[in-house]
Amino acid sequence: MYATNNNAVADDAEPTAFRKAEKKYKLYYDQDSKSSKKKKQPKQVDLSEVLDFKSIIDSYNQNAQLPPGIVPVSCDFDRPVFGLEKQPGFYFIPGALSVEEQCQWVRESLTSFPQPPNRTNHNAIYGPIEDLFVAAKEGRMLVEDEDAPTGLDDCGGSNACIGHGDGRRWRFYNEDIARSKAKTSKSIPATILLRKLRWSTLGLQFDWSKRNYNVSLPHNKIPDALCDLAKKLASPAMPVGEEFWPEGAIVNYFGPADTLGGHLDDMEVDWSKPIVSLSLGCKAIFLLGGKSREDPPLAMFLRSGDAVLMAGEARECFHGVPRIFTDKGNAEIAHLESHFVDEDDFLEYIRTSRININIRQVL
Ligand code: SIN
Q: What is the pLDDT of residues 206-224, one digit of tens each?
């Protein structure tokens, strides 16, 4: 599943227990602040029931005590791993990634992961787009070139073809050229396309229209470094003697009001293998429900660097992300801000964003 805007948590849906929790935590703005000239303020929400693995690990490290229902997982992993008594197959690894690793995966998520032949949500309208992050940095605009040959299929990203979809071609131009072309052609700034980037898919490509993997689509293998990381992180959840083979990954990009509605990830063949899910950027609330949407979900914070594993029974549990926090007091990204101090573009993006990379064995 991929991040969508606020409407993903539709207001007219059946009020299941999962839906009620989504509504409880989603971002609303204070009524008063909307009408005033002041910046809109997020409505206060009661976070007292949200499980906080950061304080859990702090007290565990001090006195080896855990709150009821949280269990330590014994494994060879070099950091504490926790499980939930009532949710077998769910694992939480607080601070699994170092700050350097977090920065590295933020960079990759914005520069190399959206590169063709990897697909993004923009493919459906514009075809493959190369170097979106660079184009945004350089203030370029994507312009529809109506004179270009039509009827081309998705090229999978050859150099000759900057973008084509719908039988039309789209190219990046500098702003002044784009402005003159814009009189007759459609155009959109790369900065807006970057902001509207919702997902990219690595390795075996997930086809959102069919909600399944399309193994015939052109694809690259998951990058080795991501593959190695996923294998290492998957180990606490792996059946004894078996190996995890990362074959596909979905990268979700969340802006301030974006949410990920309750869903199951059920298109992979072997559910005994975990989904390895990494959080980068602004803090979020994750809801872990049961096998029915009627089961009340457990809410927990996900911070930059945390990893979650869902295997076995947990693969059958509804889950989603109803909220990300982009305000200074709650985002908890000061460590990223100091690392990105000379990299303004990453800094600007991550200050109001969250990225989730979830890696799967598909076949
Ligand atoms: C997912 O469930 O697909 C992603 C969860 C997350 O964003 O942490």
A: 998 888 999 999 999 999 9
